[in-house]
Amino acid sequence: MRKWKKILAAGAAVTVTAASVSACSFQDILSNNNNSSSSSAEEEDSPSYTGHTTIAFYGVDNRNSKDKGRSDVIMLLSIDNDSQDIKVVSVYRDTFLNVTPDKDTVNFEKANAAYAYGGVEGANSMLEKSLDLTIDNYATCDFGTIAKTIDILGGVPINISSKEELGYLNKYISNTNKILHTKSKHISSTGKHTLDGVQAVAYTRIRYTAGGDYKRAQRQRTVFSQIAKKAKSAHFTTLIKLMNQVYPNINTNLKKSEMLSMVKAMRGYSTNDMRGFPFKRAAVTLGSKGSVVVPCDLSTNVKQLHKFLYGADTAYTVSDTVKEYSQHIINETGLTCSSAESDAFDSKDSASGKSANKTPSAKTSSTEKKAAS
Q1: What is the DSSP string of 113-145?
Q2: Which fold has domain 11-372?
Q3: Cis peptide before 297 (omega within 30 of 0)
Q4: Residue 16 CA from chain centroid, whole number
Q5: What is the CB neighbour count within 10 angstroms for residue 61?
Q6: Where are the alpha helices (DSSP H) in 181-276?
Q7: Is a pLDDT exceeding 90 seen at residue 362?
Q8: Higher pLDDT, 160 or 2
Q9: What pLDDT is recorded for position 114?
């Protein structure tokens, strides 16, 4: 049972809010507890929470995160307050799901269309109905906000793994500079670099290397984990600056007072496991709907998702709605459980963002080629 419904937002869009919230708590301490030390003020009245909470985060490439547009980042956070663990799942943007906000009809398209059709409410509805979830809170921001967050935190360490990745990174740096009216420099070599905001956003936009969009989602999770680490260790004056400059650009249903309570309780939480959804999948081109990522099948994937997010010891029974959607996907695509294709992204990431068991090879599978298109 969920014992609480309001919790800290942290991540691609997630960690933007997390860092902002931390700043909010420190600012409250400074303004209201001038005669006390910051450490004692922080410990005072820190709430404790139990159970799980699920948070949805959307990254959009609009100039304004409150505008409707396709969401190129769709992330889920499952926060276990008893173990103090946070698990992160990227829902691949091309996942073939019911995206209509209309309760009486169905329209299966790429998952990122749900935000364009119904805004954050439509996107939340898609995730809840298709994945048997209850979305407790949400946050949305654009990549300009993410870039500013990373700059304020002093950049993030990222390993550029190949010359191919480096080439695409520099192309996206130029493109992102043009969009955001910035002047970030190109990266000169492969290997580990501290990327500024524009460079890191450019890194998360790469999709035409081996692994296609699956690899891009993994890059987004890698940047997420690095932002979280930087925000966790940042000085409170840095976090105050972040809150003042970034928080107004985040679309969320959390009040500052709610964030203040949550951040005091959650400073010790850790992000351990991350992976992409659907776990078992294949890519197929469906006429005007383009290349989509098909869950093989949806019911099976939802069962695995609940086990991953909530650690269910017993088999999860999916809802009738998920069963109906699963059969619709099979009827429209012809793909079943046996159609799933193995690739380098079948397993969970480590905290570093690397696949736990496999790394992408230069040879791209048919699934990965379609995901990159």
Answers
A1: HHHHHHHHHHHHHHHHHHHT----EEEEEEHHH
A2: Aminopeptidase (3.40.630)
A3: yes
A4: 11
A5: 16
A6: 197-205, 212-233, 236-246, 256-266
A7: no
A8: 160
A9: 96
R_g of the chain, CA atoms, integer Å: 20
| First-to-final CA distance of the chain | 41
State which amino acid sits at residue 210: A
Q: Per the omega criterion (within 30 degrees of 0), is the bond before 72 cis? A: no
Three-state DSSP class for 1? coil
Q: What is the DSSP letter of 187?
A: P
Q: Is 192 exposed, middle or buried (0-12, 13-18, 19+ CB in 10 A)?
A: exposed
Cβ–Cβ contacts within 10 Å for residue 62, how many? 18
3-class secondary structure, 193:
strand
* Residues constituting the chain: 373
| CA 28 – CA 13 distance, rounded (Å) | 23
For the residues 81-103, what does the mean pLDDT come to?
92
Instruction: Locate the domains of the chain by residue range.
Output: 11-372
Q: What is the pTM of this model?
A: 0.82
In the numeric block, the tokens 């078992």 are attached to: 280
